[in-house]
Write the structure tokens for this entry.
Amino acid sequence: MGDIKRIRKKYQTPMHPWVGPRIEEERKLKRDYGMRNKKELWRMDSRLKSFKDRAKALLAQRDDQARKEERQLLDRMTRLGLLPAGAGFDDILGLSIQNLMDRRLSAVMVKRHLARTMKQARQMVTHRHVMVGGKVVTSPGYLVTVSEEAAIGFAPRSGFADEQHPERFSEEELARKKAKEEARQKKAAKEEDEVVAYDEKAIEEAEVLAGEKKAEKKADEEAEADGKKDEAPKDEEKKPEKKAAPKKETDAKEPEKPVEKPAEDKKAPEKKAEQPAEKAAPKKEEKVEQPAPEKKQEGDA
């Protein structure tokens, strides 16, 4: 029977599941490349990450074995069509997920006009209609090398092998499609030239406006400085007038103070007069009690 093969995942999931920008980017890639689920996207991302990690590890090594593995890695990337000939490790670190997705079998079929859409290409591959180098391939995520790109075709048993099939592109459609692509490329090139020219004009206009604003600021500062010099003697003349105003207010308030004082003085003697009246009452009560000597005289008699 042999040893049991250990099944492992061929991809790594994101570190954090709920990141808005990453989710939107994955959704767009899934829609553009006709993928069934995000596992296919994560598989491509993990493969790209392995390429970059290997390049970083080799950059840190300086022995002969590292130099040999560097050449092998660069040759592999050129065979896959990810890098041009003569590229370096900096180009490997600069690759994006879109570069790797464009080398999938479904994307290459759409590029070579063997399928109309990504989903149609995926269906053709999974239904065993496509051959690569004389062999049937059933994986839409198969990475096509540069040498195999010209060997992509339909299986002899497939109905798509007939050029008159309604889903195949006719020569007229291909000609129109090429003309549209060329027109689109020319338009993009013109727009880039216009953007560059517009940027140069905008820079010149911005420099002119900046110079005018600086001149206006200098003129305003000079005018403010002249105005401050003229206002300085006027402020000195106005200062004594401001000081005289509070003196008049104090003079007007001074006669009001003695009016309140006599009212307080009148209340004070009234309180003093009431105090002796209260003290005199107990003295009269002490004088009234004197019946004891009279009783003694009656007893003697």
Notes: Residues 8-103 form one domain. The beta strands are 130-132, 135-136, 152-154.
